[in-house]
Every structure is written in structure tokens, then in C-alpha cells.
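The record is kept unedited without comment:

——
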Amino acid sequence: MKKKIVLPSLLILIVIYSLWLGYQLLSFKTYKSPPKVFLSEVEGAYHIHSKYSDGHKDVDKIIKIAALSALDFIILTDHGHPNFESLQSQGWKEGLLVLAGSELSVSRGHLVALAFDEPTLSFSQNTELAAEQIRRLKGFSIIAHPFSKVKWSWGSSVPYKGLEIISGDSMLKKNFISSFPYLPALLLRPEYVLIRMIDHPHQNLEKWDELNNNHSLFGYFSVDAHLFYKPLFSLLRLHLLLEKPLSSDFQTARKQVYDTLRKGKFYNAIEAVAEARGFRFWAKKKGKTTSMGKTLLFDSQITLLVRAPFPFAKEIHLIHNGKAILRSHKRNLTYKAEQAGTYRVEVYLKEKSPLNNKVPWIISNPIFLREDKK
């Protein structure tokens, strides 16, 4: 008797669940931006692991996946001090700019090294020494996943240029079990499941804002891809605003990308929910413009401007020293700066989406208005 009741009930639940999940997937779409006309804006994925360390695919397969994902560049970051094999993979391949740095295991945690000249000796495991070695080799360093996996231990000095705000691998490990109702969709629309796993990066943003009170540090969305390469490449992207279109010469293109990252002239987007190209954040004073990443001496003549030219609903938040001071649903925002500090932008998608509506869709890098030169 019990079996006659349990089996039909179970089948009914499976049907209801299948219909519910099917509806979620069918109603999911990526909101489209206007056609790509910004020739100097390039999109890429940062922090990728291959079989040269603990990734699940070899570099050639990763490159093909990235090229099919319409990326302009990727940055490999295999573990090593540095990873010499990965460094040999760089070049223009499949119409894609392939760059490589290394993720170092150092005394304070994990540190990503980029843009360095190839060393003759291994980098130190002492954090400060490694950062100095990277700097001397014309490179720069980024703190990886500071509050997850191998957590970062903070010191008094900040000889780094960046901090990861969202990490794809950390997100997967933290929220895999809590996303259990959506896991079957990994076979059909894996990007949908990954979007569901994204939490608001409160702790990372608070630390970033705190550090930016005294230092200029830039924020990164990191795919930290070991597997799920295709959905991660569609999920988290860096948008770089170059001075000129990306060169076909490898060394020139490499310099363009790394110089732009050094300057913080880029923004981050959860691209799988909505295309973000065309977003802009800049400062203006007496007709002269200043891009993200720049530091200006504060005065009352500085105006901050945001452009979000998207045909779908969104909300722009202007952030000052970690707190939202202005919100707008319009395509443009203008604000006359009233005090010194660190200004950045968060944009929230206001359309139906699997992304938690409290998680920012776009996070810009800051413009620093200082009382004195630092």
C-alpha cells in the first residue's frame, strides 16, 4: 500500500521539479548590449590554470574554448615560482592574445605575478621579497582569493597592484552544495548554475575600500578556472579600455594589456547575465578628462561621470570610500565631487535574472581624489 502511494508521489515531485527547472532555464537569457563598436575596448579572462599545474585541460584546448567564447585575450596563471612551461605558451593563437603569468604560493597566501621578464632564478616564498623581485623584473602582483581557499595574512605594507574581488573557483567550492537544486542544469546551461552560486563579495569589497584609503589598488574578477572553462569564460570578464585597438604584434599587444591593467583602466562584469561593453566612468575638470585608475588632487571643480548605455533596466551606484552616495536608473550619472576620497561605481541589473539582485553586475576601478599626492 505504501509503495502505491510513495512511487506516484515521487513521480509527481520529479515532474514538478523538472517543469520548475525547465522553466528557469528557458526563461534565462543574457541581456544584449548594442553591437560592439568600441574598437579599443577588449574583453578577457584572468587567472586560468592548465595541465601545467592543477587545471583539467591542456593549453591548446583552453585556447580553442576561449577563442570560441569571443574573448580578445586570456591570462594563464599556472602555479609555480614561476611556471616556465606556461610562460612558453604565450603568443597570438586562434586569433586570441594568450598571456601568461604565475600564481605563487608565498608566506602570506597566494600571489599572482604578471608582466615580469622571465627570471633566471625562482621567486622567493617570502611575500615581500617575491613582490620586490617581480617589480624589479618589470612586473606587478595581485592578491589572489584573499578570504577563501588559502587566505591572505595582511601586513602593514601594500606593495601589490591588485586584489581579486570575485573568484570563480572559490565561488564553486563555497556554494556547490547550497546550489544542489540547480546542479542538474550543469549538463544543459552550466553558466546558469554558476550565476546562482555568486554571492555578494562583501568582505573583499570592504578590504579593498579600506586599503584604497591610503594606497591605489585595483580590483579583479578572477575566473580562477581549473575546469568549467567555457561557462567561466562567459561568466566573469575584464573589460580593458586601451589607448588604441589591440595590435597584431604580440609584444606590442602584451604591453597594451599589461599597461592598462597597471593603470587600473578597466572594469569587471558578470557577463553571462548581461553584456557590459560601453560602460564608462571618468572624471572631468575644466574640459580635461581622467580615466579610471587615476589619482587627482582634489578640488571643487572635479565632476565625476558615469555612462551605462544599456537598453535594459539597471541601477548605477556611485560609491565613495565604500558607501553609496548616489543612485540612478538613468543611462548617465553626473556628480560634482564634494570631498576627497576613493570613488568607484557598481551597476546592478534590474531585469529578471538568476543573479542575486544584491550582487553588482559591474564593478569599476576607482578614481582617487587625494588631498595630497600619494
Remarks:
- Residues 41-277 form a domain with the TIM Barrel fold (CATH 3.20.20.140).
- The chain is about 25% helix and 30% strand.
- The longest strand covers residues 341-349.
- The first helix runs from residue 2 to 27.
